[in-house]
Amino acid sequence: MFAPDTLTLGIFMPLRFYDGDMRVLSGQARLVSKIDQLGFAAVWVRDVPLFDPHFGDAGQVFDPFAYLAYLAAHTEHIALVTGSTVFPLRHPIDLAKAAATLDNLSGGRLVLGIASGDRPVEFPAYGLDHDNRGERFAQGVDYFRRLLAQQPGPIDSPLGQLHGARLLPAPVCGRIPLVMTGSSRQSLQWLGEHADGWLTYPHATHDRHGPLRLAAKVRAWREAIPGGGFRPHMTNEWIDLDDDPHFPRTPMQGGYVLRTGRHGLVELLEEWREAGVNHAALGLQMARRPAQDIIQELAEEVLPLFPTLPGPQPHSQSW
Fold this sequence. Notes:
Blueprint: E1 8-12, H1 28-38, E2 42-45, H2 64-72, E3 79-86, H3 92-105, E4 110-115, H4 122-125, H5 133-147, E5 155-157, E6 160-162, E7 178-181, H6 188-194, E8 197-199, H7 209-223, E9 233-241, E10 250-252, E11 257-260, H8 262-275, E12 279-283, H9 291-302
Parallel strand pairs: 1-2, 1-12, 2-3, 3-4, 4-7, 7-8, 8-9, 9-11, 9-12
Antiparallel strand pairs: 5-6, 10-11
Helix pairs in contact: 2-3, 3-5, 6-7, 7-8
Protein name: LLM class oxidoreductase
Keywords: Flavoprotein, FMN, Monooxygenase, Oxidoreductase
Organism: Pseudomonas maumuensis
């Protein structure tokens, strides 16, 4: 997925918006298998534990870990990414167990996007205070990493004490990358010190002003990374890819969706790459055309300009 001065492409699930009928999700796994074969870098799934009708977006509907395990069995190479697991709502032991299991089942293909949560109705349902989610997020990150450390020791945390036991299985490559989403109610300094990668919203995407603002944000974060070195930045956009390749970049639904032809999309992706973005996750759920048609056009006309990077082969998946 990641290399300096390079941008790769992923697809955000679901491919169609859920509006009360689960049949809209039928056949998604077959298309994800096709996405894998076509050479995209990643497939992303969302984490929305409870549907809030006032929020109006049911998200992926499926549990992200269970669904990514299902998709792992239908794919071979593509990275499997959560965007983003709500860390404060779950105990780090449960998160680490699920993540390490999925990492092993997929041969080491998991990238864990994490967030502090943006749906207030979920927190009291878990018996948690929504206002304390930032503190609980930071505590959860520390506990999670110590659980999966190569040489784990005792843990004394506000979230629990662990002595004389350890969590299995270990991550395939020794560490599961944690990609922070937005601020997650942390300071930029904290994000520079603790984030393996950073996912932020793209600002406006219909002209160059949004990518320029994004560039300043990415630059400020990288300046906060101790000792410098490369860490990847990601962004995402819901697109309505018009069948006219010259259709101009046009904001729709209050800027929530970008309608554009492929030439405009390529321009945007190039602007993101110049801004320091290393991976773009494209959502198709608001598009008018069939998802498979858009995926095919992206694979034929856009993906060659932003190819997936060569990397190590996944470890054995012969479970």
